Every structure is written in structure tokens, then in C-alpha cells.
Amino acid sequence: MRFTSVLFDLDGTLLNTIPDLTDAVNAMRMQMHQRPLRQDVVATYVGKGSEVLVRRALTDSLDETIEPDRLSQGMELFYQYYHAINGDKTVVYDGVLDGLKSFREQGLKMAVVTNKPGEFTEPLLVRTGLAGFFEHAVSGDTCARKKPDPMPLEHACQLLEAQPQNTLVIGDSRNDVQAARAAGMAVVAVPYGYNEGQGVQNLDADAIVATIDEAAHWALRQ
Ligand SMILES: O=C(O)COP(=O)(O)O
Ligand SMILES: [Mg+2]
Questions:
Q1: Which residue segments constitute the domains of the chain, with CATH numbers given?
Q2: Residue 92 CA, distance from chain mean position
Q3: DSSP state of 166
Q4: Does residue 47's CB lie within 6 angstroms of at least one atom of ligand 1?
Q5: CB of 48 sitting under 6 A from ligand 1
Q6: Rounded Cα gap, residues 131 and 115, in angstroms
Q7: Is the interface score ipTM higher than 0.90?
Q8: Ligand nearest to the Cα of 140, by number
Q9: Which positions are catalytic?
């Protein structure tokens, strides 16, 4: 097999975090005198990290323009509520555990690369029982730039002492695919996550796999 390491996206790939993110967003919105948003709407706002989520949730659109005072009030409330509930309703997707075990049995080194801030990533990996699979977690605030910039993938690759051409990225959105392409890494996409409201069919991925378990089988054939 060509791969020695795998970099996993978190939200929408390993974990369904939308119920918790929606609760935190709606607690923030209620406090700021706005009506609650539906989960499927919030799902389209996820992908570029917490600040962009708060901007989109407060404007209820992909328009991220907002006054600085309102943004800082929203950020403070969102962080407070998300810390309080992070993981409560989060579910590990079907096929993730089998897939992670299969990658581990194949001897691959694994890391998480997420746009979620590190203060949420670490406790969530512990709470969902996934932490032990990964040597490192690179979060949205670990590097100077987030996905779709390749920087966090390159950083994770260095931490794992791997080469980009031997590294596989698995994600649910264009942010993952664009970052992987720019980093010179292979990338497969799962269709069940959140791609900012778009399907994954038009992404420039090497394959679309139904589950992480299927991704492990795909990797073995390369
Ligand atoms: O926090 C986000 O916006 C998305 O996080 P992800 O990179 O794990 O999908
Ligand atoms: Mg994702």
C-alpha cells in the first residue's frame, strides 16, 4: 500500500456534531433576541471554524459581514454554551470505529486535522472514545491558517514524520479536498457530512467512500 499515514477531518467525517453545534448556536441566538435555527441550516454554516460559524449563524446566511461588537458578544456566548454541552448529543458515525481499527491494524499513523478550535477538539475526542487512535490533533487555531489552506495538513504530516505523497486525507467538505490537493496529498470524501450545503460529487476527490471502513478498504487497494 502506498500510504503510511492518514489525516482525518472531525466534524461531519468522524463525528456528527450538528446537534450540539445547533444547540450552542441557538442558545447564543436566543440570548441575542434571535429565533432558533434548524439543524439542517446550521449544518450549511459549519466548515470554516467557529468564528465563521458564529458570523453565519448571527446573519443566518453565508454572508459573514457583522459589526465587531456583535461578533464578540456572539463569540463569547457561543464558546460558553458550546463548552457546556460539547459532546452531549454528538454521535460517532457508523463505520468509524471499524475503519479506525482497520487503519491501525494496517500500521498507519493517524492524526485529526479539524477547523474546530483546540479547546473543543481535545475534550470531544476523549469523550467520544476516539482520542487513543490518534498521535496528534491539529485544530483550527493550531496553525496560522485553517483548511482550505494546506498549512494544517502539512503540519500534521510533519508531526507524524510522513511524506505528503504517502498521506491520505479523509474529509467531508471542499475545505478538506482543496487543502489536500494544495498539499499534494491523496483525498477521499464521505457523502454524509456537511459541505456548506453542497453535494460532494463535484469535489476533486480521488474517491467518494460511504464510510470510514470503506475508506480503509480503498486505501489498501492503492
Ligand atoms: O469547525 C468547523 O467549522 C468544521 O470542523 P472540521 O474541519 O472538523 O469539519
Ligand atoms: Mg468536516
A1: 5-16+90-220 (3.40.50.1000), 18-85 (1.10.150.240)
A2: 13
A3: G
A4: yes
A5: yes
A6: 17
A7: yes
A8: 1
A9: 9
Question: β-pairing, 5-8 with 167-171?
Answer: parallel
Atom of ligand 1 at shortest range from CA of 52: 3
To the nearest 10 degrees (0 to 180), the angle between helices 96-105 and 212-220 is 30
Sign of CA dihedral 29, 34, 36, 40: negative
Q: Which position has the grid cell 450538528? A: 18
15 neighbors 38 (Cβ within 8 angstroms)? no
At 132-155, the pLDDT tens digits run 999 999 999 999 999 999 999 999
**Cell numbers that stand for 184 in this block:** 499534494
Which one of 13, 50, 114 would you pick to mutate in the ligand 1 pocket, going by the greatest count of ligand atoms within 8 A of its CB? 114
Which residues lie near ion ligand 2 (Cβ < 5 Å)? 9, 11-12, 172-173
Question: Residue 206 is which amino acid?
Answer: D
- pLDDT, tens only, 37-80: 999 999 999 999 999 999 999 999 998 899 999 999 999 999 99
